[in-house]
User: What shape does this take?
Amino acid sequence: MNPSSSDGATKPVSLPQIQMLLGPFSSSSVQMWLRMRKLPHSASTRGEIAKRVHDGIKKGHLTLEDVVDGLIGIEESRSKTVHLVRVSGTKYFAQRVDKQLTDLGTVLSQSRILATVKSPTPKMIYAVNTHKEFRMKWGEVQTRAILDRKNFDVVKKSVPVLFVFVLDKITGLGQLRYDAPQEMHSHQVNGVAKQQAYFEFYREKCENMTGLSFEPVIMRDRLRYILLKQPPVVVPVTIATIAEDDQTLVYGSRSGADPRSRKDFKADMKDDAQLRTFEKSPLRWEHGQTNYKLYRDLYCSIDASEGTVHFDAHCTDDEVEYVISQLV
Assistant: This one.
């Protein structure tokens, strides 16, 4: 991917090229990617981040391919809501995926690529199929409505929206990674854009392209384990539980203190911990307790009953994969 001159020689990658490549990505996510590769990463401006990346290439610690692959990982992970599913009812599902892709005449790529999104209707950007994983990325342009407070008017802004599907062909675990839908898009019910129609379109696309059916991963037991683990690995903002009598109890603190320190939470856990299910919790992963799997505290919101995880930060692929590995 390095640019070449007319005589075939590889040209060095310039700093302006790196700045342009990093343009759509947050400084914090690129900085974290550098840190996870154990490369110099301290910077206070976008220009300094670009220089760190450029210096890594000049010194031979990075290639342009490394950088592009890292940016793809960020693009396919940042601020996503991930619906976790498992293959249901098929023993030889990996072979079935291969056959379905062949029967559909799906054009497969050799590797992942950065997205270029221009169409208001969903378009596949790539599909990659190996013996271990099937992965594809789709994109569409949606419209965000922004209030112009000065002129009391609504301004329409075109926003590229991505969807990524990752299927582990060994374990049967699937990840449906959604960008947040905007106010106006092509997934409509009776002429009105609906978030659920957006979610269902891509889930059905995944099932149709793989020839499989999926069921959500219920994470109540894992959420309980993570929240009660000692020493703590996460700090929850709130904890929503349901008791045996279907009574919903939400533990939280106006002061921002850990709800697990509350007397009522401790008493309830002592009295009927086994009768109470853990449903939802927005929380922060403490990186110091992850054996260097994370290099910063990471916020996410877990809905254990629906099998979804919303990542607030501009995450890297490694960060998302770590959190998911702790929940399944």
About this structure: The chain has a mean pLDDT of 93. The two ends are 37 Å apart (CA to CA).
